[in-house]
Amino acid sequence: MQRRLFLQTSLTAAAGLSQLTPVVTEADPLLLPDPKPGKLPRWRGFNLLEKFVAGTTGPTPAGPYQERDFEWIAKWGFNFVRLPMSYHCWSTPDPAHWTELNERVLKEVDQAVDFGKQHKIHVNLNLHRIPGYCVNPPAEPLNLWTDEQALEAAVFHWKHLAERYKGRPNREVSFDLINEPNTDEASYVRVITALVTGIRSVDPDRLIIADGLQYGNQPVPKLATLEVGQSTRGYLPMNVSHYKAEWVPMLNDSPPPTWPATWMNVAWNAETLQKITIDPWKKLQKQGVGVHVGEWGCYNKTPHDIALRYMEDHLKLWKNAGWGWSLWNFRGAFGILASDRADVTYKDYQGVPLDEKMLALLRKY
């Protein structure tokens, strides 16, 4: 699974689970919360990967989103999906044709937004690969941070999406502009400002979220004046969350993980997570910026009992902070379905292997 090159700079089962009854997390489960950029709801859910890469080379082949996913996510008491998407799914890597769009594929995104509305799930659209930048290989032909043609194309794609969803309430759909940026702050602020300006020229009230710097881990106070929310991550320390992950060479020789853990000569536990991954973002919140955890989880090579303890400490901290989260992924190596862990006895749930213990933990928080 080519998940991504990631972060080299930043420091049970519930009673009756077999019945899989819904957990009500909002005062009115029939109405999604109305989000504001300064106070994002405590959305809880999953990343869905149908448009994560173009073609059939990725962990999930590009194709229509599955309504069954939305049905199950809602049934289990969650209300959020993030759709990390590659623009290659509906356009081309060739800069000469970056503004040519495949309407058939974009209608599959429309359908996902409709599934969200039908099942009372907020849909967050993210450009995981945007013209000029992606945290995953291959590199883009032009550089979003330095090339005006790339920036113009990036603005074009977001303006097109803004036009498609103009009139949809923010409780149904929001935009997450660029996945896990890795650049200097000035360049990032310049690009985000251009994207926000483009979107608001079409849809002035659309809810917009920007990922933190350093692959989503560092808050960006200089974006506060744009009135956008910000998205953080939940992968630290990496030697626990990404143990034996093939796309992170720096962890190839890591010993089997523990939790609490030691990484980069730092002792990691819940208190460390509070200081490094929570407190800087709480400071950002005081500037009137809403916070949400766009991605997090543990790769399937991390022993299951370690993964669950690690995940629970994160979940407790986010609940205390009032933040929502979106697990990477729903189906796949970080998820609760078809995760292919060697040390889990799965439940067959309508033909799909279900990690009941992980689902129970997520529903608890």
TrEMBL record:
The keyword Hydrolase applies. The keyword Hydrolase applies. Residues 67-330 form the Glycoside hydrolase family domain. InterPro entries: GH, Glyco_hydro_5, Glycosyl_hydrolase_5. GO terms for molecular function: beta-glucosidase activity. One of its GO terms (cellular component) is cell surface. Keywords: Carbohydrate metabolism, Cellulose degradation, Glycosidase, Hydrolase, Polysaccharide degradation. One of its GO terms (biological process) is cellulose catabolic process. It comes from the Bacteria. SUPFAM superfamilies: (Trans)glycosidases. Transmembrane segments: none annotated. Pfam families: Cellulase. Belongs to the glycosyl hydrolase 5 (cellulase A) family. PANTHER family: ENDOGLUCANASE, PUTATIVE (AFU_ORTHOLOGUE AFUA_5G01830)-RELATED, GLUCAN ENDO-1,6-BETA-GLUCOSIDASE B. This is Cellulase family glycosylhydrolase. It comes from Spirosoma agri.
